[in-house]
Amino acid sequence: MLRLSRVNQLRASYIRFMAAQPQAESQASSGTNNEYTSQPEYPPIRDLTYKALKRRAASDWHEEIRQVATVEEKIIKVNMPRYYGYKVVDFNDNKIPYNALPVTQHYTRTVLEELPLPTANEYEQTELSSDDILKKARNDIIDALELAHDFYNHKATLPDIVPSDSVSREFQLTQIIVEQVNRALQQVLSADYPHLNDVEVDYNPRHEAFWAVGGVDPPKNVEKSKKGRGWQKDDASESFDRLVQYTGAPYLALRHRQQLCPWMTEGESENMDLARQLPRFNHDARTLGYTTTYQHAVNVPGYWPSANGANFGLISFQSRAFLQMRHKAYGDCDLQEALNALAIKSSYAWLLAQANYNGFNTYNDLTYPMNTQTVITNGREWSFYEYQLNTLLLHGNQVDENPRVNCCRGTPPLPLYAEISEKGKCVDFNDATLKQLLRLYTNVPKVERAANELHPYVTARTSDYENTHQRDFIDKTFKHLCSKRPRHLQLPEIYLWEKLYKIDHKTRAMEAKRRFFELDINPWRRTLEKHDKEYVPRAVRPGGRKNREDRFKKTFYP
Hints:
Shape: globular
Distance between the termini: 56 Å
Oligomer: single chain
Largest sheet: 8 strands, mixed
Order of helices and strands: HHHEHEHHEEHEEHHEEEHEEHEEEEHHHH
Number of domains: 2
Radius of gyration: 31 Å
Helix content: 25-40%
Number of helices: 15
């Protein structure tokens, strides 16, 4: 009976199939069925080489980062491949090696130009002329300088407060001068320039940025490793991406809710001939004296993503105290090149961190330009710069194929005053330097964008999530990555005796294989989510004491 029923089922299926054939043929002849076409359609032929597969995998990963909803999750997504962090070149604001300008321009894709002097036409937007503003601000700035020196001299009588080394003393004096000058200018100009009433002032803020740079020659160990693999030996000498992490803390930073007007048009920024003229530094940055370290990718422009309001940089004041330690044998042009290098990398990093909070990163390019102004000073000499960020794509082939360039315009050091006399009076005050400083403060930010244009790749905020555990997890993970705390257990290490007796010379064949290199485990392949989850006690489990599914807290990695 079972066999006959099976036969009947097959017969019924065959009858239904034959009955459906005329209908399928009629649909094919009429062209209504998408399964049939008049011309043959073949799938695209893909390049299956190792290099092409790696390029497509990287492109898919960049697209995954772009699709992530919130700013915090985007940063977590960038850090997902490395549990112990990336190996990065340590860029900072207190170390400029000799001949650092070419590598800085290459690593930021920046063209350097001279900043034009201010003209009277720039002040036509208000009823005041440049001379009127100068007269109002001059006496207040002189009083601020004299007050700063008087306060520093008073502190100098206390040996426990004033540091002994000259670099720290200059940094401390300049900090006082910058704060007093900023206070005086805001008081004088705020009545005629209302945007100064809305700025947020950050004292010694934390500026950090992470990005990838292509077109760098591989180190010897990477080249040797690739030559040992058959599918990579032909590409062993090709350039690869170098990861960069900038860390800085300026004296002062001013932020506003609106953007500065760009001074470089889209046609000027997309210039392939200009991009080809950029300096190329193919060597390892360590050849100049830069160091490398291991850490997670961090982007912090001085505030957290949850901060509302002033999210665009207006002016930042950088220190040049470390330049007094440079050797005179470096040449006459070395000081100016060091100032230009510091202005370029500090401005680029600050704008990159701000762009990161709007959904952009080193793998997802900007859709609009961003601008800022930078001042480098020791209190007496002042250098002024304007920077426009047009592109963030510097990785891989983008270093050769990207037509966009960033631009920096700057001035040589200009003295604000000659000295402070023994009586505490300012000597030989320079009005031209004050005009340049007033130009930066009176540059009114006017660009205001709609939400969908401002952050096109950000579709949600962490606070919008209804799940409380998800909000807490994302915020805690993001803050932990930005804290740069080391892991509870350090990265596994190969000891020297193991390198000698177990790897180079296999003399311990009878010993049990327990170490990671003996078990063919690469600790650098450990991803961010590979860790023990937090245990939830029975008394506080959501599903009750006997619910074994909720023994561990859920994770919400992107």
